[in-house]
Write a structure and sequence with these properties.
This protein is mainly beta. Strands 1, 2, 3, 4, 5, 6, 7, 8, 9 and 10 form a ten-stranded antiparallel beta sheet that branches. It has two helices and ten strands. 12% of the residues lie in helices and 61% in strands. Strand 5 and strand 6 form a beta hairpin.
């Protein structure tokens, strides 16, 4: 029993002292902690305004939005996004009036960045979220031009994309 107590006391005395040496003094070539993301595990944040053009129901539509996220290890970005969409006013024979589509959606995005240290590189964002859209009916009356809500619906969105990005300077990727 005395041997166990003596061994425990010596271990308790010398183990903290051993922890004071750095890796070089111990003879180790490994400089730093190993992590799942490797040695390049910098974390940064960014915000962006977005503008997209697409086709919805065979009509041109514009999507304006914003997103913000964290970039980890210069390799992957994650965050939140919100967008609004609309198209031009056109005549709808089923509703018998001029209509326009308007809506909004938001969600979570994940964006792997391929070759982030190159001056020009590719990012592949995927957004998963929910939103709502409404087919607005144009209503001209004595008070002016107004839009009345016609058909409204909610939806879930999974939006993949491809982005071309430019590293303009070290602190200003575009």
């Amino acid at each position: 029993m005395k041997q166990i107590i003596l061994f425990s006391a010596l271990l308790a005395a010398f183990l903290p002292a051993y922890g004071q040496f750095n890796d070089y003094e111990r003879g180790s070539q490994d400089q730093g902690m190993r992590t799942l993301m490797g040695q390049n595990n910098a974390v940064g944040a960014y915000g962006a305004l977005t503008m997209q053009f697409t086709r919805v129901d065979d009509r041109d539509a514009f999507i304006f939005g914003m997103k913000g996220g964290l970039i980890t290890g210069h390799m992957i970005s994650m965050g939140l996004t919100a967008s609004v969409l609309f198209n031009d006013v056109h005549y709808d024979s089923e509703m018998g009036a001029d209509v326009s589509l308007a809506g909004a959606y938001g969600g979570f995005f994940v964006e792997p960045i391929l070759m982030p240290n190159m001056p020009v590189h590719v990012a592949i964002p995927v957004t998963i979220g929910v939103g709502g859209a409404s087919l607005l009916r144009l209503n001209d009356d004595e008070w002016g031009t107004n839009f009345d809500s016609g058909v409204t619906d909610a939806f879930m969105i999974i939006e993949p994309g491809v982005e071309l990005e430019f590293n303009v300077t070290r602190f200003f990727p575009f």
